[in-house]
């Protein structure tokens, strides 16, 4: 079993997929800890969240400031920024 720690994915699902392939990550054998900022800035935050969810118990995530911002926008306590890429998540 290996433990991998990855930070600041920032909505870059393709890059995350390549990285997991490069390390030959296996959900049945390995553990992944995502160190915040899974979403925003990159082109496909929704796909990142879906990929992490599909890993089930093999993945854990800490919340970063972008993730907290998403929760605030989703609950109406923050306004989206003009450079945010959260729309697809909020529409899902």
UniProtKB/TrEMBL annotation:
Q: Which residues form a coiled coil?
A: none
Q: Which residues form the Calcineurin-like phosphoesterase domain?
A: 1-70
Q: Which Pfam families match?
A: Metallophos
**What are the GO MF terms of this UniProt record?**
bis(5'-nucleosyl)-tetraphosphatase (symmetrical) activity; phosphatase activity
- From the UniProt annotation, give the residues forming the signal peptide: none
Q: Which GO terms describe its cellular component?
A: cytoplasm
> InterPro entries, from UniProt?
Ap4A_hydrolase (IPR050126), Calcineurin-like_PHP (IPR004843), Metallo-depent_PP-like (IPR029052)
> What GO biological process terms does the UniProt entry carry, in alphabetical order?
RNA decapping
What is the protein named? Bis(5'-nucleosyl)-tetraphosphatase (Symmetrical)
């Amino acid at each position: 079993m290996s433990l991998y720690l990855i930070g600041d994915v920032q909505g870059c699902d393709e890059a995350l997929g390549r990285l997991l392939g490069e390390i030959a990550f296996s959900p049945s054998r390995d553990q992944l800890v995502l160190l915040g900022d899974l979403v925003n800035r990159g082109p496909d935050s929704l796909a990142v969240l879906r990929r992490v969810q599909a890993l089930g118990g093999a993945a854990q995530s800490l919340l970063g400031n972008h993730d907290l911002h998403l929760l605030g926008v989703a609950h109406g306590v923050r306004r989206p920024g003009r450079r945010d890429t959260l729309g697809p998540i909020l529409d899902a």
